[in-house]
Fold this protein.
Amino acid sequence: MVDRDLAALDDPVGQSLLGHHAPLARRYGRALGYLPDVATFAAVPADPDAAAPEATDATVWADLARLLGPGELADLFSSPATPPPDWEPVFELAGRQMIWPGTGRPAPAATGADVVELGADSVPEMLDLVERTRPGPFWKRTVELGTYLGIRHGGTLVAMAGERLRPPGWTEISAVCTAPEARGRGHAARLVGALAARVLARGERPFLHVAEANTAAIALYEGLGFKTRAAVTFRGFRVP
C-alpha cells in the first residue's frame, strides 16, 4: 500500500469539511463547521492565505463568530489556531493521534455475525449508550458521518464504533464504547477491527484520536496495530 499524505492529518476537520464531508458543512468566509446535530467541530486556517490578503487573523475569527453565533461553542478539535483573548476557554484535553501503519500490517480478520450496521433508526439507542459511556461528542445526526457498527445482547445495543472525520486518504474511527455490563468480552477490539478492515478495503487508512489519560484505550489500539503519530490538544472556546 502506498503511504498517504500525512499532512492531511494536521487539519483533519478542515480537510474533511472541504472534501468528503462538504455536504455536511456550513461556511462563512474562511471559517468552516459541521451542520448542527452532526458535529460541533469547526475549522479555521492556521495561517491566513497569502493569496487572500483580506483574510487576516481578525477577519478569520470574525468569520467563525458569524458562522457559530454569540455564546456558541467553537470546538477546534486539535487545531493549533488560537482565538482572540475575549474567546473564553471552555475545555482543554491532552490526547494523541494514532494511525494504521502502511505496508507490513495485514487487515484485521472478519468479525462474527453479531456485528451489525447501525442506521438512523438506531440513533435513540446509540445516544443512550453514549450517555452511559461518554466516548466523546455524539449527536442526533453524527451517524451521517460514515458507517457505524454495533453489537447487541438480547436486543439491547451494548457496544458500538463508527467512522467520523474523512480527510483525503484517511478515515477516523470514533465513538468506540461498550456498556459497563458488557466490558471485558472484546467487543471494542472486534468493532474497531471490523471498521479498519472496511477502510482498508476501499484503499484508505484508518486513524483515530484518544485522550492521553485513557490508557486502556491506547493499549487496545496499540494491540490492534495502531501507532502514535502525534500528540494533540483538544480545545474549545466560547464565542463572545
